[in-house]
Amino acid sequence: MIIDSSAQLVFPDLFYRLKEFAAGRDAFLKLEGFNVTGSIKLKTAIGMIEDLEERGIATPNETTIIESSSGNLGIALSLVCASKGYRFICVTDPNANNANLIGMQLYGAEVIVVDKPDPKTGYLGRRLQVIDKILQVEPNSIWLNQYANIANKMTHKNTTAAEIAREFDKVDWVFVGAGTTGTLCGVAEGLREKFPNIQVIAVEPEGSVTFGGKPGRRAIPGIGTSVKPKLAQSIDPDEVITISELATIEACHAFAKDYHLLVGGSTGSVLAAIKEKASAFAQSDTIVAISPDLGDKYLDTIYDPSWVDANIRCPAKTSISV
After folding, report:
1. Mean pLDDT split into 10-residue runs, the chain, 322 residues
2. Which of 88, 93, 156, 203 would disulfide-bridge 273, Cβ 3.0–4.6 Å?
3. Do residues 293 and 38 make contact, with C-beta atoms less than 8 angstroms apart?
């Protein structure tokens, strides 16, 4: 394969068969971490930028792209904007992992790290306040707003859902972690059209408010929200499973030991949810889950026992929503 842009390094059809993963049944993990920026967010970045271009809203070398991200979308947009000739400003927070922050800057992004959360809406609320200020002073700037952008959802309906449907003759269950809910909404809409009886399971961490949960302190980025995303209004999952961050950590470590692959926190949450739901699976059911990224960026967090002790097992008393 010969490519003309690094943004073409997308690997859409990788599924890891997890033999006897859930009560003796196989599950299939759709691996998105081998895309060039290390996550499923590369698809999101390409889809949202191309949507602006198709609508004549963004012009290379003239338009400034702005987005809020805890890491994976930020680095994906950094690469895509660099390859297309857009200036990119990413607003993030201290929970973003260092590897993504360095990667964004190396691709040429301007990175703003907010230093404290909003008392009511957490770090996300503070990031959005900063974006509003930037839009007022930056000419020709556009906020992508991944939390409400229909292109976010449609990208995953047209790619991720279609890739799953192409691989399997039937899918009975799909497990998707809920962040902005763009992946969740797109996958659910696309797969329900192909497999009307599918059970769509949304997975979110304790402390996330997306599906009506009580807001609380969270330390693992990339899944859950402290402000309910507008896109979530368009999804009605068959079930929402809430996973503790400790269960997420334990699932990641167990998976590395048993299946010899380091996965990110979102994947760990999804794996824990599959285990929790295992008794409901029929012998002939096809179970698919989305793995948004791999674990190499989390070696100093979820795979570091000292970090886990300080942030998950015995966190600071101050409650901070992210």
Report:
1. 87 95 95 96 97 96 94 95 97 86 95 90 89 94 96 98 98 96 97 98 96 90 88 95 97 97 97 97 97 94 94 65 42
2. 203
3. yes
What pTM was computed for the model?
0.93
Beta-carbon contacts of residue 39 (< 8 Å; ≥ 6 apart): 32, 33, 72, 75, 76, 264, 292, 293
The dihedral sign for the CA sequence 38, 95, 306, 259: negative
List of domains in the chain: 6-31+159-309 (3.40.50.1100), 41-143 (3.40.50.1100)
The set of residues, in sequence order, having a beta carbon less than 8 Å from that of 102 and lying 6+ positions away, is: none
| CB within 8 Å of 66: residues ≥ 6 apart | 88, 89, 90, 91, 131, 134, 135, 138, 141, 142, 143, 144
Spatial neighbors of 145 by CB under 8 A, at least 6 apart, are: 67
Phi, psi dihedral angles at 141 (to 5 degrees) = -105, 145
Classify residue 151 by burial, with Cβ atoms within 10 Å: 0-12, 13-18, 19+: buried
Gap between the Cα atoms of 251 and 278, Å rounded: 14
